[in-house]
Amino acid sequence: MQYDRRSIYGVNRNSTPMYGNGRLFTTIGLFAVICMAVFVTGRGRSHKEGAEPIQIQGFAFDTTYQITLYEGGDRELLQKCISLCSEYENIISRTKEGSEVNNINSLSKEFDLLLTGEQKESLQKGNPDVLSEEECRSYENKLKQKLPEAFEKTSCRIHEDGSISYQIFDFLKELVQFSEEYGTLSKGCFTMAIEPVSSQWDFTAENAKVPQETSIENALPYVTGAEITLTDDRMQFALPGTAVEFGGIAKGYVADCLKDILMQGGVTSALIDLGGNILCIGDKPGGESFRIGIQQPFADRKEVIATVAVKDVSVVSSGIYERYFEQDGNFYHHILNPMTGYPVENDLMAVTIISEKSVDGDGLSTTCFGLGLEQGMELINSMEDVTAVFITKDEKMHYADGFENYMVK
């Protein structure tokens, strides 16, 4: 299988986060289609005599995050990061009422409920010109009556081909662009349209259970049949009932945005840890590498299978051992196959990606897990400035080109 070796950086990765209009991003009610399993070891001190690292902790995106400054910056800058995390969550959370993503999904699902059976069938077959202009305005009025705030905030519109569109801004727009790129790169293993299926599963419940088969069957067409387009500042769903979430890429993108903010504030050495999604700024004071432990699957979080020494890069892992449950002797984990609606089935237990940008670590770890060892390895080895280790269920480690250069012997 041949992969496009072009840069997948379709938008400017060096641009600063855009939040001037107050509209930023959230899945971070974040269903975690990705669970990170790396942690930081051996944190250093500032090499300024007597100075201690400055650190803050918080909770967002359904996870605890931690930011540690070793050189540059101050507590005011860290407080700005806390505010930004809250602002980002109010955009991309699929579960937080009033978030941008929640508004979009709610309108799409409500529109689907309003359609007649004949109209739904026609749309699912991809037939155009389903609605008259009068019907479009009628459905818009009904949506506005049912969800007035969401309708106005998203500038929702219904089109004669039966599609529904929304105005989106800055942070969410770039997130959608990244998701489109990884959807293409992954051959469909990664999709932001997974929400109708992922919302059927609850891996955090005390007594988690497999969803009813009919529930998954009914939700799956909205995933496999989803067609999402982005034109200028409008996102359009061809199939009403389509819904999005960004759990497989959001934390990485947020980490990159926070890094930009910190570096603009004069930070030259820091660690950003979003629930185990690690992003380094520079190196440790004195020029040492940061040491990041890769968790031993299904072991205590402090037990590592390997340690890597890194500078100014991201380390992100996906694994089947963070969120899972067993039922009737079967094992179910949180990384879902968009084609079946059930957990991915292959020989992989974990994937760890080292990359310059954390958004790529997020996207690639999910993508590679879905592709499996052989195709995932082929993809990573076809890319520049990215490497990975794959851990199979027999606990063997399989290294992509260059990964062993980071290993601490």
Structure, explained:
The protein has 12 helices and 17 strands. By secondary structure, it is an alpha+beta fold. The strands form 4 sheets. It has an 8-stranded antiparallel sheet, covered by helices on one side. The longest helix has 18 residues, at 75-92.
How does the SSE layout of this entry go?
Layout: E1 38-41, E2 54-60, E3 63-71, H1 75-92, H2 100-114, H3 117-124, H4 133-146, H5 148-154, E4 157-158, E5 164-167, H6 170-185, H7 195-198, H8 213-219, H9 221-224, E6 228-231, E7 234-237, H10 250-264, E8 269-274, E9 277-281, E10 290-295, E11 304-310, E12 314-319, E13 324-327, E14 330-333, E15 348-355, H11 358-371, H12 373-381, E16 386-392, E17 397-399
Helix pairs in contact: 1-10, 2-5, 4-5, 6-11, 10-11, 11-12
